[in-house]
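Collaborator request, handled under Task 6.
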Amino acid sequence: MTQSTQNQTSNSSNEYFDLHTSGVGYINRIREVDVKKGQNFMACTIGALRGVKSAVEYTYFDCRVSGAEAAKVVKSLEEIGEDKQVLAGFKVGDQYSETFVYKSGNKKGETGICTKAHLLYLSWVKVDGETFYTAPKKESSDKSAPVPLEQTASANSEGALPLTTQEEEKTTMTA
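Structure tokens returned to the collaborator:
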């Protein structure tokens, strides 16, 4: 492998695609998770509000608190107690779904689905309607602007992503 190929390989190994979701929701179940191997971490559940204001629905995220500033805020919220209503503006990332089996209650033995995510950022937090935290204003940057397709993935001359092997086979068979 040549030096330039090694540099390209090491540079591209740090590239990835982000999927972030932002919204407003209630923070519950703040806890520290003890792990046998590795470092303990803070976790919480966010009941994200969605739908019409007069008939709100919830989507739940079981979050590992990953953002440094978010971790400080969640840690301070842990000390105020579970009986308070905590509403926050949030950003989560790296969402994925996981199945589990209910161990108690009227759904005992049934399979459920949980959406896991990393809590990256809290823009504001209110406890029982009173402002508890407001994130400092960020300087505007182009980092939040969408990245053109040509820069995010190798595109063909029409700007489309390359075909997978199965799609290539289908194209070859129909031609």
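The cover message to the collaborator said: "The chain is about 20% helix and 40% strand. The first strand starts at residue 20 and ends at 33. Please let us know whether this matches your experimental observations."
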